């Protein structure tokens, strides 16, 4: 029980008129018939309207190294972050719920029961970046026995798959009276409509009146289109003119024309072909009935690298990745690259937090509600968190520590040291209590016998001289117990 300075009487909280507002929606986000006809939202560019855009975005991500890099920057940053799930509170029931969710989804060192690992399921959901949205169907497995950390067995029904339902396969999305998706129909044979409570729906940038949202690749489309056309035309030009174009002068006869065509084809398509055309004794080329010239226009071809580099820069800018282009152009500095990286990591952090929230609302909540009831889903939902999205840079970390220490920020407590060691790619410090075989409850009993609590012990340790060799510790948070 937590004691506070003021007693709070929840019985005195007033209640409003819960029956007053009308249920349902009076207006509409957009034209339903247009959305159904296009099988997706309209765009200012007809090539990117409706389901047609999904095939364009698929081509973009599979054929362009710049687009692939744009997507991988975000996906790898989110996947390499630290994902964990914590119990709602210290109640044993909340811990059991948390452990079951971690066991099913593959979090906090668990192998997981899904067909994909937690990292791969994140990558699957992050396809909303290229397509604008992503649907997944919650596929439930059979009821089975699960053993918790205390050895108690429970009957649970785990999730077997978060089955991908690509937006290009969606034929119709229906909404209920509350504006939420109630049913999804695919344009694939032998499929049934998917009810809304079996769907996980992720959208990158919502657009009013549409279900498909706006793709991260949408502003990069113009540069990609130009890059594609430029590469095709440049390839054709080099193929046509790098080997030269043979021009044959021949007698104006059918036999001469046929032989001239044979000579031209051989010279054009065979790297070892040659033509031997003797001239009259004492004459010149002009006196011969036959002659051949090789026209080479390679020197007149425009240099495409500058424009191709500009297209790659535009694609990178669509994802706030200006810093990734430093050093590839005429100018670039490390300091400016580090400054430009901040907006990208801020965007990646927001993206990861949104993904964590949607995974909790649409997947974890369903898992808890099915296995532990709606009340547990309302009041004992575990917390899914994501942190440490920044890239590991030992030089930057070392400089930050050297600047913070004179200002009074020390990293002597165990939790801070483990965080810094994790950033440096080192293992955590060993657990001294377990290493020396000292049970935690025994140490607590010894402190109690000496008339000390954990806060007093921490104050004693902190008062020791700095050269004693005892690491300082922080006062434990309420209910945290001895530091592990």
General description of the model:
The protein has three domains: 26-221 and 344-387, no CATH class; 245-295, no CATH class; 394-468, no CATH class. 41% of the residues lie in helices and 13% in strands. The protein contains 16 helices and twelve strands. It has helices at residues 32-38, 52-63, 65-79, 92-105, 118-125, 128-131, 221-241, 254-269, 305-317, 334-372, 374-379, 394-404, 414-423, 432-435, 440-449, 454-463, and strands spanning 82-86, 133-140, 144-147, 153-156, 159-165, 170-175, 181-186, 194-195, 199-203, 245-249, 291-295, 383-387. It has a three-stranded antiparallel sheet with strand order 5-2-9. Strands 6-7-8 form a three-stranded antiparallel sheet, with no helix packed on it. It has a two-stranded antiparallel sheet with strand order 1-12. It is elongated and about 125 Å long. Residues 1-6 and 475-484 have low confidence and may be disordered.
List keywords for this structure.
alpha+beta; 484 residues; 16 helices; 41% helix; elongated; 13% strand
What is the element layout, followed by pairings?
Layout (H helix, E strand, L loop, with lengths): L31 H7 L13 H12 L1 H15 L2 E5 L5 H14 L12 H8 L2 H4 L1 E8 L3 E4 L5 E4 L2 E7 L4 E6 L5 E6 L7 E2 L3 E5 L17 H21 L3 E5 L4 H16 L21 E5 L9 H13 L16 H39 L1 H6 L3 E5 L6 H11 L9 H10 L8 H4 L4 H10 L4 H10 L21
Antiparallel strand pairs: 1-12, 2-5, 2-9, 3-4, 6-7, 7-8, 10-11
